[in-house]
Amino acid sequence: MRTDDFDYDLPDELIAQAPAEPRDSCRLLVLHRDTGALEHRHFSDIGDYLDPGDLLVANRTRVMPARLVGRKRGSDILAETLLLKRREDLDPMGSVWECLVKPGRRLKPGAVVEYRAGGAHAPLSAPVVLKGEVVDFQDDSRGGRIVRFSPAEGLSLDAAVHEAGHVPLPPYITQYEGDPEKYQTVYAMHEEHSAAAPTAGLHFTPELIERLRDKGVGWETVELEVGIDTFRLVEEDDPTQHVMHTERYHVPQRVVDAVHATKAAGHRVVAVGTTSVRSLESAYDPAATLSDPPMVARRFEGAPDSAAVTGAGDLVERLDATTNLYLMPGSTYHVVDALVTNFHVPRSTLMMLVSALATREGIMAAYEEAIRERYRFLSFGDAMLIL
Predict the structure, then answer these.
(1) What angle do CA 189, 173, 247 make, to 5 degrees?
(2) Which residues touch 234 (CB under 8 Å, ≥6 apart)?
(3) Is the pLDDT of residue 323 over 90?
(4) What is the largest CA-CA distance in the chain?
(5) Beta bridge partners of 101
(6) Is 314 helix (H, G, I), strand (E, B) or coil?
(7) What is the model's pLDDT at position 119?
(8) Is 90 in the same domain as 59?
(9) How far apart are CA 243 and CA 236, in angstroms?
(10) How far is 40 from 29, CA to CA, in rounded Å?
């Protein structure tokens, strides 16, 4: 297995620059794993493929205004900072963050960047609301830095970030000037913890969720604080040499109970997005005692062996846990039976994750079909349902 095995040619014009309106009007490519068959539908039709008793599990994380643009103190150098993860091990008060910075070569330890009220285009007379001092390298080759932030007097750090920050759209979205709330799911929590959106969930509307519930489809949420490393390309020729950074996640007991009940009744757990997959599969403990009734009641007809659980093991509650789970062909899915997902960047860990569920050959064939049919790709693009 090579990283090149997960590469494909993505025409620039197929990279979506704005979300569908309404959200659930986007297209939906349905992939049937047992036969390889593909169907072309719209996302609002997703209920046609879900049975009463199936369980949708979505990631309710909310994107924080993590993109900061300021100037390096004592110069005219513009500096862009993307907040990735609080380093509470370095400062329990939460002022130290792992960040990506540009230009990295100009921001060595000791450099101070000043961020002004109103963000990137604020006039020079606007007050400085936040200062960031680079204190160490986190990953010098990729612009990773450890930065200590100090807000202006009278402001909390979170308030200062809101004054100066913007929701960080992915770099391939260059033309969107609409409502940044469209880059949040309609069911997102109030607290903001993520550097990127769980984009498979962007297609759901409150009305669609209500229709699914009325049909008898369950709905539960986990939380995984999405870091930018999830979406990075794999640079190593051998994908097994790629190292995933850790992300914080929460799988509460109510989700565990809902999964147990769903499996015991012979129904499917359908993850909404790859971050929900990583949350649920990270919370699977191979050494745990099986629940009563067992978490998995039967093997789904037509499902590959990797989609079924054998032997001991169980889903368990995880609160304030961390994961660097890396799924690729050959990995076993213990909890998730089906997946709602977007079309992903070539050579990414996400291509490998979906290939672990549907096989590399199945995914590449689906992507070829999507390109032929002019689907819209990546964060604001169309969706896939892998059954």
Answers:
(1) 40
(2) 3, 6, 242, 347, 348, 349, 352
(3) yes
(4) 66
(5) 81
(6) strand
(7) 62
(8) no
(9) 10
(10) 5
* DSSP H helix total and E strand total for the chain: 6, 17
Range list of β-strands (E), the chain: 27-31, 38-42, 55-59, 67-72, 78-86, 96-102, 112-116, 128-139, 144-151, 218-224, 247-251, 269-272, 284-285, 314-315, 318-323, 338-342, 383-386
More confident residue, 77 or 378: 378
Tokens of 226: 């999405």
Instruction: Give the range of the structural domain holding residue 252, as residue numbers without chain letter.
Output: 3-63+179-386
pLDDT of residue 344 exceeding 90, the answer is yes
Predicted pLDDT of residue 258: 97
Q: Same domain for 256 and 355?
A: yes
**Domain end point (choices 140, 164, 188):** 164
CATH of the domain at 115: 2.40.10.240
* Number of independent structural domains in the chain: 2
Give me the CATH number covering residue 27. Answer: 3.40.1780.10
Q: Is residue 172 included in any domain, yes or no?
A: no
Amino acid at 50: L
Query: Are 69 and 80 contacting, i.e. CB atoms less than 8 angstroms apart?
Result: yes
Instruction: Assign 315 to helix, strand or coil.
Output: strand
Whether 224 and 59 have beta carbons less than 8 Å apart is answered as: yes
